[in-house]
Amino acid sequence: MSEIQVSETSEASEVSEASEKPVPGDALAGRAEKLDAADALAAVRERFVLDDVVYLDGNSLGALPAHVPDRVADVVRRQWGELRIRSWDESGWWTAPERIGDRIAPLVGAAPGRIVVGDSTSVNVFKALVAAVRMARETGGSGQGGEGGGGGDGGEGSARDEILVDATTFPTDGYIARSAARMTGCEVRPVAPAEVPGALSGRTAAVLLNHVDYRTGRLHDLPSLTAAVHAAGAYAVWDLCHSAGALPIGLDEHGVALAVGCTYKYLNGGPGSPAFLYVRQDLQERFDSPLPGWNSHAEPFGMRPEYEPAHGALRGRVGTPDILSLLALEASLEVWDGVPIEAVRAKSLALTDFFLECVAAYVPAGRVECVTPAEHGLRGSQIALRCPDAGPVMKRLIERGVVGDFRRPDVLRFGFTPLYVGFGDAERAARVLAEVLAEAPGEE
Ligand SMILES: Cc1ncc(COP(=O)(O)O)c(C=O)c1O
Ligand SMILES: Nc1c(O)cccc1C(=O)C[C@H](N)C(=O)O
């Protein structure tokens, strides 16, 4: 498939302007039809197994790419069933973690050789955070590129005994950070991402941040926060679970030191598909993993008692890779062939704008409150609507074929995966939401 072009005309800004005055339902349905007809990504939907449900939960579990079942069957029947042990070499099993990392790399703005795939996001948060603390202490801190030089307050011998953690983080990151802190003799301080620059000091070793907030869908400023953390001589670890595959990230461009992300949301790798770990090139030789398994040994089959780390991204490996899940992920990444991440971002903004416009037109004022920022630069690829009876409302929406999710205490979450969600889906979701809300009048 040839590369899909990003349109110069921003449909997103057009719908934002239009959103000021409510438009009748049939006009919105007509607009949705036109937008779908003009959508350069519309045909990508055919690469997925979908039914007539409006699936707005790809920010939790991405849909199944249609060719994956046969590919997984081949891995099981032929590679495992017939080739058996030979597949470690002949089917490329042994090198899959780096090979698949290189396939994800362009989607997150990384050159080849910087990403390894394996383990869960939680495990990779642990590896990255402990490695960040170790690196910060090793040099007195300097997240910035290049050799030596402790930036900011962090001189040789400074304590570097604090980890700042996004106060609104997805819980697993906070749990892991507190354990990593206990193990490294650090204290954890929860800080709202925007407050991070003011909270940095010569004590800061590492900062764990989410790129997009899982509940509100707010996009945090990765370039400026990374620069601030590095200028203070600490290392930022970014959790990209809700941005990888949803928007351009520019890891290399922005000098990000360490990043992790899952592959089962916008990368559609399947339930429990392995996560990825990015280590900036100039830090790879200093990456001191707290989980140095035999798969990251320089000579894994040397079976030596002493650990000698391998070079490059594969230093982030631990034990035997989860081959069935890895190869399902590798197959699913083929849906990205010819799809630029910029086109995905443009459509994501247009879709979320249009959904908000439909909600404003259909849902009585005051019944829901949007907690996702309206400003494009602050928005991920989901819309979160606060609603006092969000739990039962989402249950009814799902019964009526609109699948989003409920996040405690009161958030209706709608994830927009531009590879397979269309403008007609956005209009239908808002319309059904209004019907459900009309039947369930809320707390009043
Ligand atoms: C931001 C974020 N981090 C981490 C996770 C979970 O990580 P794991 O893959 O270890 O379950 C999720 C979702 O499950 C998430 O939204
Ligand atoms: N990882 C999940 C799972 O194993 C079961 C159910 C949901 C998930 C999720 O990914 C939740 C998701 N991270 C969230 O943002 O809420």
Automatic annotation (TrEMBL):
<feature type="region of interest" description="Disordered">
    <location>
        <begin position="139"/>
        <end position="159"/>
    </location>
</feature>
<comment type="subunit">
    <text>Homodimer.</text>
</comment>
<keyword id="KW-0663">Pyridoxal phosphate</keyword>
<feature type="binding site">
    <location>
        <position position="320"/>
    </location>
    <ligand>
        <name>pyridoxal 5'-phosphate</name>
    </ligand>
</feature>
<comment type="function">
    <text>Catalyzes the cleavage of L-kynurenine (L-Kyn) and L-3-hydroxykynurenine (L-3OHKyn) into anthranilic acid (AA) and 3-hydroxyanthranilic acid (3-OHAA), respectively.</text>
</comment>
<feature type="binding site">
    <location>
        <position position="242"/>
    </location>
    <ligand>
        <name>pyridoxal 5'-phosphate</name>
    </ligand>
</feature>
<dbReference type="InterPro" id="IPR015422">
    <property type="entry name" value="PyrdxlP-dep_Trfase_small"/>
</dbReference>
<keyword id="KW-0662">Pyridine nucleotide biosynthesis</keyword>
<feature type="binding site">
    <location>
        <begin position="170"/>
        <end position="173"/>
    </location>
    <ligand>
        <name>pyridoxal 5'-phosphate</name>
    </ligand>
</feature>
<comment type="pathway">
    <text>Cofactor biosynthesis; NAD(+) biosynthesis; quinolinate from L-kynurenine: step 2/3.</text>
</comment>
<feature type="modified residue" description="N6-(pyridoxal phosphate)lysine">
    <location>
        <position position="265"/>
    </location>
</feature>
<feature type="compositionally biased region" description="Low complexity">
    <location>
        <begin position="1"/>
        <end position="16"/>
    </location>
</feature>
<feature type="binding site">
    <location>
        <position position="294"/>
    </location>
    <ligand>
        <name>pyridoxal 5'-phosphate</name>
    </ligand>
</feature>
<feature type="binding site">
    <location>
        <position position="264"/>
    </location>
    <ligand>
        <name>pyridoxal 5'-phosphate</name>
    </ligand>
</feature>
<keyword id="KW-0378">Hydrolase</keyword>
<feature type="region of interest" description="Disordered">
    <location>
        <begin position="1"/>
        <end position="25"/>
    </location>
</feature>
<feature type="compositionally biased region" description="Gly residues">
    <location>
        <begin position="140"/>
        <end position="157"/>
    </location>
</feature>
<comment type="pathway">
    <text>Amino-acid degradation; L-kynurenine degradation; L-alanine and anthranilate from L-kynurenine: step 1/1.</text>
</comment>
<dbReference type="InterPro" id="IPR015424">
    <property type="entry name" value="PyrdxlP-dep_Trfase"/>
</dbReference>
<protein>
    <recommendedName>
        <fullName>Kynureninase</fullName>
        <ecNumber>3.7.1.3</ecNumber>
    </recommendedName>
</protein>
<dbReference type="InterPro" id="IPR015421">
    <property type="entry name" value="PyrdxlP-dep_Trfase_major"/>
</dbReference>
<dbReference type="GO" id="GO:0030429">
    <property type="term" value="F:kynureninase activity"/>
</dbReference>
<feature type="binding site">
    <location>
        <position position="121"/>
    </location>
    <ligand>
        <name>pyridoxal 5'-phosphate</name>
    </ligand>
</feature>
<dbReference type="InterPro" id="IPR010111">
    <property type="entry name" value="Kynureninase"/>
</dbReference>
<dbReference type="Pfam" id="PF22580">
    <property type="entry name" value="KYNU_C"/>
</dbReference>
<feature type="binding site">
    <location>
        <position position="122"/>
    </location>
    <ligand>
        <name>pyridoxal 5'-phosphate</name>
    </ligand>
</feature>
<feature type="binding site">
    <location>
        <position position="239"/>
    </location>
    <ligand>
        <name>pyridoxal 5'-phosphate</name>
    </ligand>
</feature>
<comment type="similarity">
    <text>Belongs to the kynureninase family.</text>
</comment>
